[in-house]
Specification:
The structure holds three protein chains of three kinds.
Chain A: H1 11-22, E1 38-42, E2 48-53, E3 56-67, E4 78-85, H2 100-113, E5 125-127, E6 131-143, H3 148-162, E7 164-165, E8 168-171, E9 174-177, E10 186-187, E11 195-202, E12 207-210, H4 214-219, E13 222-228, E14 234-241, H5 247-281, H6 287-291, H7 299-308, E15 338-345, E16 348-354, E17 386-389, E18 399-402
Parallel strand pairs in A: 4-6
Antiparallel strand pairs in A: 1-2, 2-3, 3-6, 5-6, 7-10, 8-9, 11-12, 11-13, 13-14, 15-16, 17-18
Helix pairs in contact in A: 2-3, 3-5
Chain B: H1 2-8, H2 10-18, E1 35-39, E2 47-53, E3 56-67, E4 78-84, H3 100-116, E5 125-127, E6 131-143, H4 148-162, E7 164-171, E8 176-186, E9 193-201, E10 205-208, H5 212-217, E11 220-227, E12 230-235, H6 244-255, H7 257-270
Parallel strand pairs in B: 4-6
Antiparallel strand pairs in B: 1-2, 2-3, 3-6, 5-6, 7-8, 9-10, 9-11, 11-12
Helix pairs in contact in B: 1-2, 4-7
Chain C: E1 6-10, E2 18-24, E3 27-37, E4 50-56, H1 64-80, E5 90-99, H2 104-119, E6 127-135, E7 140-141, E8 151-160, E9 166-173, H3 177-205
Parallel strand pairs in C: 4-5
Antiparallel strand pairs in C: 1-2, 2-3, 3-5, 6-7, 6-8, 8-9
Classes of the chains: A alpha+beta, B alpha+beta, C alpha+beta.
Chain lengths: 417, 273, 206
Amino acid sequence: MSNIRKTIVSNCEKTFLLKNLAEFNRLDGRAFDEFRKVEIEFGSDWGCCFVSLGKTKVIAQVSCEIQQPKSSRPGEGILNLNVELNPIAAPHFEADRQSNEQVQLNRLLEKCLKDSKAIDLESLCIKNNEKVWAIRVDINVLNHEGNILDCASIAALAALAHFRRPDVTCDGEEFVIHSIKQKDPIPMVIHHYPVCITYSVFNSGLYILADPTLLEENVADAFLSIGLNAYKELCGLHLGGKADLSPEIIIQTANKAAARASSVVQQIKDAIEQNNEIRREQKDGFCRLANKRDPVELVEELSVYLDQWSTKKKKNKRKSKEPKDEQIEQEVKEPDITADIKPLVAGTAVLVPKENDDGDAIKVWDTSESEDDAVEFVELPHPKVETVDIADTDSEEEAVIVLNADQKTKKRKKRLT
Amino acid sequence: MAEQYKSLHPVKYYRDYLSHNIRPDGRVFDTFRPVILNTGSIDTADGSALSKLGQTTVVCGIKAELCKPKAESPNKGFVVPNLDLPPLCSPKFRPGPPSDQAQVLSQLINDIIENSQCIDLTDLCIFPDKLAWCLYIDFICLDFDGSVVDACIIALVGALKTVKLPFVDYDAALDNIQVNLENTRPLPVHSIPVSTTFAIFDDKIILADPTVEEENLCTGIIVIVLKDDELCCVHKPGGSPLSSDELLGCIEKSKKKVPLMRDLLKTALQDVG
Amino acid sequence: MEATKYRCNLDILSRPDGSVLFCEGKTTVIAGLYGPVEVKIQKAHIDKATVDCHYRPKSGLPGVEDRLYESFIRNTCETSLVAALFPRSAVLIMLQEMQNDKQLISCAVNAACMACLSSGIDMKFMFGAVTAFLTKDEELVLTPPIIDKDIKALFVIVFESTEGRILACHTEGCFSKEQFNQAVSICEAQCINVFKFFKQTLLDNK
């Protein structure tokens, strides 16, 4: 696989992320077991679905064709899943070449949806040993901001649940495929709804983050992917990377994931119902997306706020690292640290942990409660700039600007002699 | 001396010629190269033709095979055209899977066949939903010297006119196929498409029937396909912008080629048994 | 004549340098542009940027037909981008079909232009595409007829914004020269609306 356009994660980013994790912060402000917002949109065709998980975006399309069944299973239809990592999603994805990542994604998704027998294949049979429906699910990844697997599994499931195949009448030799106008198309028979839920594992299970973003995915030691349905049945389990997790942690994570799975499945079902109602009036499909303004843009301002946040350095106090065995409830904050949670704008909240001793060290800013006030102008502190005159030396420069002159630890620029 | 000048400044070399209203091979801007058409010389194929447009040589071979029609269109056969640009024809093609250019031209030829309706797919059906003919039309370029699409289309029509499909007896109840190789019928060809390629040089000058050197230096290509008096394809994939008058002028020029091609085809076929 | 309704949403994807979700009537295409980026040595040109285009259909693996669309859009973009400014680099244009209501090629070309504009890469001119349909009753319309069989011919013509000349052209079906001439003039008139829409979107998005 070509790595020519792959952006490597720098050591600074990695250390920054790990240090924040040690203080129970995630860079986008979520809790360790919080998932990003899922948005499901359907197109005007049956079986076309556009899903965004935070900024990761994926489009899935289901299509059907009549084929001869496999000789080993003459009475069953065929289901094909295909995930395409398009170059639009990330510059290092190559078109027409199956990378390892793509193969792994395809296999995990197949395990979750196909091997779990979620779709009833026997209902797809038209004529035993001669004609069956071959269903093909194509998933195209549009934007890669971490956790493609979850997004793809939700999209595939929603598309399959939304899809309707044409009605067919087969009496002896006569074989007729009815168009949509002649007879209503039939929905797919789905036994249960399995979704994949992915966690990123750091430091052999010390930190387990749900729904990792791109940076978290790249820095993590391993990833744990669990396929679950609404009935808390396990449909797939995958632990990949360099991590050694104890079985208890895996079981606990699976228990937490079960709650998430049922809420996602409910969201998919609601979205399909909603779409069925809208379809009768409008047939616009994805054109509705063109008018929406992405509210995730407002989270960008959060990073500007976080830039302002500063704490006094405490050299004496060392954060006590918890022993591995007691790392049972990751999401509960240490009882010593209190946090300040304030709503920012519609759909966004900010969490500012406070140090116990001196609350003044942290600037807690007043957040506007009004929903209209989306933009707040933040003044960044101007760095103190010192100019050193070195006109009397051999240097071609007349003056040298010293940055960060107020930091005592920064070495002064040596005078050129 | 001229050779060195040509390899050092090819564009300037061409510009000098074009300023005198003549091309390096002696033609004016609107003339196309002489065309040679040979039909029916390949016995192993069901239909064949070889066309030579100046130096550009294309062999077209048609093989007919029996197949089952698709469930969605039970009374239609299949036509599968494919253009192969092997390393033999030009140094810029390497061995391996079909290059992008070959794929694009194959698709263009497929579109031309569909748009001009020269083959009616229902003619290829033997028994609805059970048996139909599938025509594999293979083009092999032996010499790549520009205007490959033109050469392919002439070869295509020549080959189609020589295709003889055997009569097939099909017993639906017993699923018995009997092919009668002695008794053949010619394939009905409903129209004769004629294609002309133009190259836009320097955003201003339009040259008809470009050679490969002119194609490499040009800033745009236009392919116009006519069927009798109707247009069936005007393909201009990007390249220098043209005003609509200039485009219509190209269409007029390509119209003049149609009766000549028809006569050429008639003459070539009258000797074939 | 009923005009096609254009809608779009800029910067819908976070990874590409410029991206857009473009709706032409009901046809929807997502386009993304990366550029200038690193290029493979075999594909590098020493005097200009290598413009590459990838078109992905919604279902099924990309086939030979998509190669034709790719070469069409690639050549159009190459003419309009100032490729000479970025030697030994690549500009990648990616398109994903979302919904197809018979205006796919023109929607894809328009989306590609908007993606270029949204990314801020240097361009010589804007380009806009219009689709015209010739119905069985020999009438030229801009909105797609509902029944497929009613369409006798289809014209996709791409114009450039500075002088209004034809940049690219693609046709399907049979038609006469006069009908082609008529189609060109109708598309030219409609293309002015396309450019107005581009400019309006950019002003709204500041």
